[in-house]
């Protein structure tokens, strides 16, 4: 269960929150959950104590997860797919002044590191799907759908320099995979092709080799300094 301190951080200090998952991807159906993700800014005085604020908080609502701002930036600089996609959700529920500046830095987090992280994450998921095939004779089709979506998103990011998470016209094709209407051999073929397309795209990608760490760090330091004098945390 979430503790009171963590709940307070999410309730009172969230700078950005959005809906993710199938609803953000344009893949929602009648039974889809509503996954909420957010970023909170722990007031700087909390870091002066022996017990540091949490780097992330689950809850307080179901299907809700939030990162502390510094942890979120660290993961985004490493091109963590889940975190980068969170920054690009079309379904923003809350954003304050700090959150707006965070969103203005979306381009600073993007780099060719995304090739490694998106493909590596996808291959990890593919291994799990293949294990399901050996054990149960069928994969988790929903996970197969999202793996194809992720590989497509990564490929297009490397090709264009922009991250778009809505699947658009590919919706019905992907939902057919989720329903188990596409043979596993065809799903495997698509996974392999998309992986190869990611590999090809990185060689001529408009993205820089590394993210703009200095720009992100400047934002983080300024934000930490500004929160030193917040009332109630001395």
Question: What does this molecule look like?
Answer:
The chain is of the alpha+beta class and 234 residues long. It has 2 domains: 4-109 and 212-226, 2-Layer Sandwich (Beta Polymerase, domain 2), CATH 3.30.460; 113-202. The chain has helices spanning 4-13, 22-25, 69-77, 81-87, 97-104, 106-109, 113-136, 141-160, 171-178, 184-202, 213-226; strands at residues 14-20, 35-40, 56-58, 64-68, 92-95. The chain has a 5-stranded mixed β-sheet with strand order 3-4-2-1-5. Strand 3 (56-58) and strand 4 (64-68) form a beta hairpin. Helix 7 runs antiparallel to helix 8. It is globular.
CATH topology of the largest domain: Beta Polymerase, domain 2
- Reading the helices and strands in chain order gives HEHEEEHHEHHHHHHH
Q: What is the tally of helical segments?
A: 11
Overall pLDDT metric: 93
Major sheet strand order? 3-4-2-1-5
Low-confidence blocks of residues: none
Strand content: 5-15%
- What global shape is seen? globular
Level of helix content? 40-55%
Name given to the CATH architecture of the largest domain = 2-Layer Sandwich
Radius of gyration: 19 Å
User: Largest sheet at a glance?
Assistant: 5 strands, mixed
Number of domains: 2
The level 1 CATH classification of the largest domain is Alpha Beta
The number of distinct β-strands equals 5
Structural class: alpha+beta
Intertermini distance: 27 Å
